[in-house]
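Appendix B, Record 12. Input sequence as logged:
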Amino acid sequence: MSLRADTPAPPGARLRRFGRTQRWVHRATAVLMGVCVVTAAILYIPQLAVMVGRRELVVRVHEWAGLALPVPVLLGLASRAFRADLRFLNRFGPHDRMWLRAALVRDKRPSSRPAGKFNAGQKIYAAWIAGATLVMLGTGLLMWFTHLAPLMWRTSATFVHDWLALTIGVVLAGHIGMALGDPEARRGLRTGTVSREWAKQEHPLWRP
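Logged structural output:
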């Protein structure tokens, strides 16, 4: 029987937050995104390009990692639990607006930041990174297969791809920084379980 966040439980009880599929999708996506970011940095920062060399190999690794980026999510759709999490991420309710208002004024009181399984910040990040990934994939294909579009389109695609890549790097740095500040959230992604106390404080509306 699952433990609910609002019912008594033995001391030290842990709640199941993520199953094997969700954790695998997150790890695989993180690895592929990391490869894309690192290879992009090597391609665009002269000092790194000189240090690493083998530009053609770096380009190929970057291209194939980018093409593979949506694959973990697509495979994860076979899991009912993963699809359920996507539905949670896709729902934005009054409590999410309250969470955002509190975040904007830096109000860190738990009572002012109600959240279900995912808070409003996580929902916005997930939607943004999903959209950015699709844009990067589309513009990358135009840059890779030059016969797909006229020169003006390819030039525009390169501009969007480069600047969006920089934005993704900044957003990912913020995402990683927030994760580093929350060991229990990282433990949930690593082991699949979180402490009952953490769930009650950070996600009081979540019902496991």
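The two ends are 10 Å apart (CA to CA).
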